[in-house]
Every structure is written in C-alpha cells, then in structure tokens.
Amino acid sequence: QTPQIKTKASGLDGWKRTLDIKGEKSPVRFKEGQTLEFVVLAPSQQIDPQGSIQFVSLESTKGKRQLVITKTNSMGTSVKTVMNERAVPFNAAKYGTSSFKISPAQNLPPGEYALGSPSNNDAFHFGIDPANQKP
C-alpha cells in the first residue's frame, strides 16, 4: 500500500505532515506472539539495514492508519521530526545475495505496522491482533 503525504494545520499547535494509509486496519493480519520474519530486497548488502529500512508502528484513527512525520510549533518557526518516536527496533541479517531478513527485536503488541524504505513511500503494512482474539 502506498500512503499519501498530507500537511495539515492543527490550530494553535502549528502544522503537521503525515503519511496516511486508507483503512484503520491492514487486511494482512498476524497474531500477538507469532514469530515474524520479513525478507526485504536491498539495493546492496553493503548498506546498513538499520539506516535504509524503516519499521514503524502506525496510529489507527478516523478510517485510516497514520504516521506523523514532522510537527511545527504554533509560530511555525521550529520543525521537529517525530517519526522516529514510532520506530520499531529490529534485527537484520543478510539473506541470499540481495536481501535482508528482518525480524522485530521483541514481540510486537497489537496494533498496525509498516515496513519499508525511507527513500520512497511504499511499504508493507500489516497488523497484529491480540492472541486471544477470534478470527
């Protein structure tokens, strides 16, 4: 899924730039506690996957999933990058000749997530459901 970049004034709080994805929940679902491993194609295995792969949690609200990228103060004079506040720690290992195997550093709590590249807006979106939730 490809998110849309939006910039929105937030009243007296300044403005914020977000990545918005349609739908409050991804159709791709996993259970809490399930072992997760993802294979991500990389331009080169010589790059640091921690700097070239982005793994974040998303906020579900008003019919969409959202990641706030930046915010400004009320005067618009100070821009703060807040995207890293939603970063998910992960482990990475070379896989094959052109990919990395990515796994979260710890079990993910229920919620919505995105795994992709910061150089473009495309990402793999998925959700984690509570272990005791019935399908």
Offer a concise description of the structure.
The chain is mainly beta.
Topology of this structure?
Layout (H helix, E strand, L loop, with lengths): L3 E6 L5 E8 L6 E3 L6 E4 L7 H4 L1 E8 L2 E9 L6 E3 L8 E6 L3 E6 L6 E6 L6 E7 L6
Parallel strand pairs: 3-11
Antiparallel strand pairs: 1-2, 2-6, 4-9, 5-6, 5-10, 6-7, 8-9, 10-11
Summarize the structure in words.
It is a single chain. This protein has 135 residues and is an all-beta fold. Helix content is 3%, strand content 49%. It is built from one helix and eleven strands. It has one helix at residues 49-52; strands at residues 4-9, 15-22, 29-31, 38-41, 54-61, 64-72, 79-81, 90-95, 99-104, 111-116, 123-129. The longest helix has 4 residues, at 49-52.
Protein traits:
135 residues; mainly beta; eight-stranded mixed beta sheet; three-stranded antiparallel beta sheet; 49% strand
Major sheet description: 8 strands, mixed
What is the count of β-strands? 11
Mean pLDDT: 86
Strand content: over 45%
Low-confidence stretches: none
Spatial separation of the terminal alpha carbons: 23 Å
Radius of gyration: 16 Å
By helix and strand content, what is the structural category? mainly beta
